């Protein structure tokens, strides 16, 4: 049972033509080598382009994070202003864990121990106490970061003797008894 219809013969001839053409044309070794070289070069360029793309993505991510940090710092500076003359100053911060107390010196010289939420005598409310800062809020809802006191060295006061002033040497034993320096002979 052979099928020798004209359409099947035509189909067989069409399929066999490229195969016989490929067998009759010899492929040169140089043509195969250059194609392999081109493929290798294209793959290498693709890897370089992908690496550059990742590098640019990382740089964009870094710049985005830096911009976020700057924006948060500017927002914090707008919300919390530094202390000015006349604001309370921090003398000390004490406490354990999240329960911190701040000893503040008001502009009239009085010392006050304060906790978060307390209102000072000058109308300022203590908003935050951390190990290194105290933030208060004025009546106008403006936040202020209080400054720490600067311990100035004590100056010499002639009316107040200090440990730095030497005492006179002790008297000899004979003088302390009321005897003359020769022993009273």
Please give the structural blueprint.
Blueprint: H1 6-24, H2 29-79, E1 80-82, E2 89-96, E3 99-105, E4 111-114, E5 125-130, E6 133-137, E7 143-145, E8 147-148, H3 173-176
Helix share, percent: 40-55%
By CATH, the topology of the domain at 83-148 is SH3 type barrels
Q: Could you say which overall geometry the principal axes of the C-alpha atoms support?
A: elongated
Low-confidence stretches: none
Q: Tally the helices: what do you get?
A: 3
Mean pLDDT: 75
Strand elements, count: 8
Q: Proportion of β residues?
A: 15-25%
**Major sheet description:** 4 strands, mixed
The CATH class name of the domain at 83-148 reads Mainly Beta
Order of helices and strands: HHEEEEEEEEH
Structural class, from secondary structure content?
A: alpha/beta
CATH architectural grouping of the domain at 83-148:
Roll
């Amino acid at each position: 049972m052979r099928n020798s219809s004209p359409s099947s013969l035509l189909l067989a001839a069409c399929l066999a033509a490229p195969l016989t053409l490929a067998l009759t044309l010899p492929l040169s070794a140089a043509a195969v080598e250059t194609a392999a070289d081109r493929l290798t070069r294209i793959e290498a360029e693709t890897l370089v382009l992908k690496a550059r793309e990742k590098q640019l993505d990382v740089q964009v991510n870094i710049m985005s994070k830096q911009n976020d940090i700057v924006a948060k710092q500017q927002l914090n500076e707008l919300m919390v202003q530094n202390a000015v003359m006349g604001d309370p100053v921090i003398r000390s911060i004490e406490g354990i864990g999240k329960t911190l107390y701040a000893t503040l010196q008001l502009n009239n010289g009085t010392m006050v121990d304060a906790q978060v939420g307390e209102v000072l005598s000058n109308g300022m409310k203590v908003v935050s106490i951390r190990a290194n800062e105290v933030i208060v809020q004025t009546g106008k809802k403006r936040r202020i970061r209080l400054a720490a006191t600067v311990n100035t060295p004590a100056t010499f006061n002639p009316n107040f003797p200090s440990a730095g002033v030497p005492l006179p040497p002790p008297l000899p034993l004979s003088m302390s008894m009321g005897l003359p320096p020769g022993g009273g002979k």
